[in-house]
């Protein structure tokens, strides 16, 4: 006998819960174990029903759906989580994934067939994203990779010496002149000289500008 996938739906709009319920109930391998309108009710339903998968929105009264995802993942790591939301910005997508969600669908254009496909895919332990979300994730990673490459190119284009790169990394990590001096076994005057060279090459107006630049561009990872 095929195992029925037990689902809980979390959304603060009754019409959405009803619509999703109707879609799910038409599938012969999925069973609706309960519905909830918010964080606390969802955790109660999960405790009672022990579902295989939770479909959740992100916007709800009280604590957010992202907080709910994190709590479910903490308390019930075996439960799979699929997000269905109208919020499709990078911050929402990556925060839900960081908290433990395995799939993301936009409310705006998700069809019944795709919803059921996503449920079955996530239930099996695989990630699932709609085409638009997958494209957005790919574009975001591409932009980050390009930014990192551009920054690496910028650093190298100014012909920084190995010692200057080393000192820049230490400034990015928050070390003072004295601490850098002790760490590298060089004088503070030498540290200052290297710092001034770095500032001239990047046209920084102050040490603060240099440190902000280093932190903002994660030069400690160079």
Comma- or semicolon-separated keywords:
6-stranded parallel β-sheet; Arc Repressor Mutant, subunit A; 222 residues; elongated; Rossmann fold; 10 helices; 2 domains; single chain; 6 strands; alpha/beta
Description:
By secondary structure, the chain is of the alpha/beta class. The chain has two domains: about 5-130, Response regulator (Rossmann fold); about 150-220, Arc Repressor Mutant, subunit A (Orthogonal Bundle). About 55% of the residues lie in helices and about 15% in strands. The protein has ten helices and six strands; from the N terminus they run E-H-E-H-E-H-E-H-E-H-E-H-H-H-H-H. It has helices at about 15-25, 40-50, 65-75, 90-100, 110-125, 130-155, 160-170, 175-185, 190-200, 205-215, and strands spanning about 5-10, 30-35, 55, 80-85, 105, 130. A six-stranded parallel beta sheet has the order 2-1-3-4-5-6, sandwiched between helices. Helix 7 (about 160-170) packs across helix 9. The N and C termini lie far apart (about 55 Å). The model has no long low-confidence stretch (mean pLDDT about 85).
Number of helices: 10
Order of helices and strands: EHEHEHEHEHEHHHHH
CATH superfamily of the largest domain: Response regulator
Number of strands: 6
Unreliably modeled segments: none
Helix content: 55-70%
Q: For the residues shown, what is the average pLDDT?
A: 87
Distance separating the two termini: 55 Å
Structural class: alpha/beta
Q: What's the CATH topology label of the largest domain?
A: Rossmann fold
**If you compute it from the alpha carbons, what radius of gyration comes out, rounded to the nearest whole angstrom?**
25 Å
Oligomer: single chain
Which CATH-level-2 architecture of the largest domain?
Answer: 3-Layer(aba) Sandwich
Shape field: elongated
Class of the largest domain, according to the CATH hierarchy?
Alpha Beta
Overall domain count:
2
